[in-house]
Write a structure and sequence with these properties.
Blueprint (H helix, E strand, L loop, with lengths): L18 H5 L15 E7 L5 E7 L8 E6 L21 E2 L5 E7 L2 H10 L1 E6 L18 E2 L3 E2 L2 E3 L2 H7 L2 E9 L11 E7 L2 E6 L4 H12 L6 E4 L15 H12 L5 E4 L2 H7 L6 E9 L5 E13 L20 E11 L12 H19 L3 H7 L17 H12 L11 E3 L2 E13 L7 E6 L5 E4 L9 H13 L6 E4 L16 H20 L8 E5 L12 E13 L5 E11 L6 H20 L5 E2 L4 E2 L17 E6 L23 H13 L10 H5 L1
Parallel strand pairs: 1-14, 12-13, 16-17, 21-22, 25-28
Antiparallel strand pairs: 1-5, 2-4, 2-6, 3-5, 7-8, 9-17, 10-15, 11-12, 11-14, 15-16, 18-19, 19-24, 20-21, 20-23, 24-25, 26-27
Bound molecules: dioxothiomolybdenum(VI) ion.
Dioxothiomolybdenum(VI) ion binds next to loops.
């Protein structure tokens, strides 16, 4: 990578540039876009987990205000079934409970919902299978795990090294199915008019939804436009199109010229918007008497859906975390009659690092070593997987800085010793990691306007992260102008191509395109351009180094209080220290880090989608039954970061921060629960019953 930007705006804690619009109601989310004379859609969902629709009786649905009822028999035909999840209302097959089998389009949302409730569907039910068990004989080995990692890896002789290790850990850890619950539900307004399909959509990728839906509907991508300037959270669940997008498109095609509004209910989000797969993870560690790892094995069983494969990369972080000469990782899938799992904040790293970092804590106890010292002893010089030098691994720096800030040195290593009244007190630590992804394909255009401002255009997404602000800061530094002289346009597929707001890659990828366009602009037009001067640039190759291993790291510290009688668990204090390259905007970055840590706390103590395998149904499918950490659960959480820039990642020197905050947080809490109680919980979430047993 060449010269770093001269950071003037970068590094400043600018307030969100769209913040005033948001509080004044001028920053519309998908469902709120003003459209004239909208219609409303409500789906009918399958009440069986597998089988066929044999009859749909819409005879009783003669409400005034009902405009159309779509079923597999009369819905417009889609063009591509390459993505079977999006093959909506095209056949009589039912692949999972809750699948869309019909939809009502009506003049009001109330009429649509009432009418949908009165559609009678008759099924031919087939035996289904919705239970993840690790001992199934029919587990399958996927070709790759998300997005394109090797499924299994093997280095050296793990079994031999384990057999001769002075200290061994062999434990199984489990994490439950979890669902993303962004504040803004998934929503689409679809309008088919003048041979053009316009979607106002809540998405992490306007260009991605355009491309996908164009293919599904058999349209030229130029005929599809996706508009999404403001998105109220996604965490990965809005990273790809889901069945509601396909259903909204079908509805629009069925009523040309009229916009159709469709927002998923909270309960529908638990079916069609993806989820984090449950995992069963066996971890085996072997170490010498000094705690130096000789063997590390991480074998994962998880689930996918028969209708479409998604294989999460649960064990991938174990390939790079610690120096162990003998290593193996593997992933196996139970293929079930369930909805399709998908991305949820740091897919792979989050459940994988829960298991691995609790196992490491167990090894520290077995070796009689401080868990920070154990991690320092096993810190690899270079990436154990690729052999490449790190672009900036500073896990040890994070652990040491965190220990200092947290007050780790006063900790007695023995569990169950500290008490505050009825509460047992413990502290725990865990490592964090996330790769630095920079995706090729983004393009930015810069045009100088008559208002003496630079209009910077790129079809990027701000899902609440602060991308509006951070990209403006990057553009200002790249153009050598004040931030006030930049007018950013994002969130529209009519803007230049931008890759997904996913994999914590957004700022790295889009920022690289903006810097390239700004550099070209200044070369051609100098610093005193005339109105209308314009330049663009496209990132066709990943700008990140191929010579270095690019990963961020962090250290998570937690204090927990466990009630001696009731088992209630509280987390009064969490601290995170991160090594993530240059931080573009400390204000929005801190929100990302502590948001991730909060989601990790939520994962540690609360979140669990309970699948009733008899029906293939998540029974706690709403915010009453699925608890997410709220203000009362979250006490003193703070995050800091090491002052760095990464010369190998991208022109900004940043590495992406959206996901790393959740990684390791649940392990730090689980390790603190052990320290408080002496009870090792290896099964998330850590509910009171598990510490009372
Ligand atoms: Mo994130 S789970 O890659 O949107």
């Amino acid at each position: 990578m060449t010269d770093l930007l001269e950071p003037r705006a970068i590094g400043r804690p600018l307030e969100r540039i769209e913040g005033r619009d948001k509080v004044r109601g001028l920053a519309p989310y998908a469902y709120e876009h003003p459209v004239s004379d909208p219609l409303y859609l409500h789906p009918v969902q399958a009440t069986i987990a597998r089988g066929r629709v044999v009859a749909i009786d819409t005879g009783g649905v003669a409400f005034p205000g009902v405009v159309a009822i779509l079923t597999h028999e009369n819905a417009p035909r889609l063009a591509s079934d390459e993505n079977r999840e999006l093959w909506v209302l095209q056949s009589d097959e039912v692949h999972y409970r809750g699948q869309f089998v019909a939809a009502v389009i009506a003049e009001t949302p109330e009429i649509a919902r009432e009418a949908a409730g009165q559609v009678r569907v008759e099924y031919e039910q087939q035996a289904h299978d919705a239970e993840l068990r690790p001992d199934r004989p029919d587990l399958v080995r996927p070709d790759k795990v998300n997005p394109s990692f090797d499924t299994d890896t093997q280095e050296g002789d793990v079994e031999a090294a384990l057999a001769t290790a002075a200290v061994r850990i062999d434990q199984t850890y489990t994490t439950p199915m979890e669902h993303n619950n962004p504040m803004e539900p998934h929503a689409t307004i679809a309008l088919w008019a003048d041979d053009r399909l316009v979607l106002w959509d809540s998405t992490q990728s306007a260009h991605g939804v355009r491309k996908t839906m164009a293919a599904v509907c058999g349209l030229d991508p130029a005929q599809v436009r996706v508009i999404s300037p403001h998105v109220g959270g996604g965490f990965g669940s809005k990273g790809t199109a889901h069945p509601h997008n396909a259903l909204a498109c079908l509805a629009a095609l069925a009523v040309p010229g009229q916009p159709v509004k469709f927002a998923l209910s909270r309960q529908q989000m638990f079916v069609v918007a993806g989820y984090r797969t449950p995992t069963v993870q066996r971890i085996r560690l072997g170490a010498d008497a000094d705690g130096r790892l000789t063997a590390l094995a991480h074998d994962v069983v998880e689930q996918t859906s028969k209708v479409k494969e998604f294989a999460e990369q649960t064990a991938v972080a174990s390939r790079i975390m610690y120096a162990a000469p003998n290593r193996r990782t593997s992933h196996r899938l139970a293929v079930l009659d369930v909805p399709v799992p998908s991305w949820m904040r740091a897919p792979g790293e989050t459940p994988g690092m829960f298991a691995a970092e609790v196992a490491l804590d167990e090894l520290a106890v077995a070796c009689g070593l401080d868990p920070i010292e154990l991690r320092i002893r096993n810190d690899p010089e270079s990436d154990p997987e690729s052999g490449r030098p790190w672009s900036g691994r500073n896990l040890v720096g994070c652990l040491k800085e965190g220990a200092r800030r947290f007050g780790w040195d006063v900790r007695d290593p023995k569990p169950g010793l500290r008490r505050l009244g009825d509460w047992l007190v413990g502290t725990g630590v865990a490592s964090s990691t996330y790769p630095c992804y920079v995706f090729p394909g983004s393009k930015a255009t810069i045009q100088y306007g008559t208002d003496q401002r630079y209009v910077v255009r790129i079809g990027a997404a701000d899902i609440g992260t602060g991308a509006w602000t951070a990209l403006t800061q990057i553009a200002a530094d790249a153009l050598g102008c004040p931030v006030e002289a930049v007018r950013l346009e994002i969130g529209d597929s009519d803007l230049p191509m931008a890759t997904v707001a996913g994999g914590s890659s957004g700022i790295s990828s889009w920022g690289s395109a903006i810097v390239a366009a700004a550099t070209a602009f200044r070369e051609r037009h100098g610093t005193d351009p005339g109105p209308g001067a314009r330049e663009d640039a496209e990132i066709t190759q990943p700008p990140a180094s191929r010579t270095h291993a690019l990963h961020s790291f962090g250290a998570q510290f937690a204090e927990v209080h466990v009630h001696a009688d009731t088992g209630e668990i509280r987390v009064p204090r969490m601290r995170g220290v991160f090594s993530a390259g240059r931080i573009i905007n400390p204000r929005t970055a801190r929100s990302q880090f502590i948001g991730g840590m909060t989601m990790g706390l939520s994962m540690a103590l609360h979140e669990e989608s309970v699948m009733d395998a008899r029906f293939g149904h998540v029974i706690n499918h709403d915010l009453a039954g699925y608890h997410i950490a709220v203000n009362a659960d979250v006490k003193d959480i703070d995050a800091v970061w090491l002052d760095e820039h990464d010369p190998h990642s991208n022109p900004m020197g940043s590495r992406g921060i959206g996901e790393i905050g959740i990684v390791g947080a649940a392990a730090a809490i689980a390790n603190a629960v052990w320290h408080a109680t002496g009870i090792r919980v290896r099964d998330l979430p850590i509910t009171p019953d598990k510490v009372l047993s």
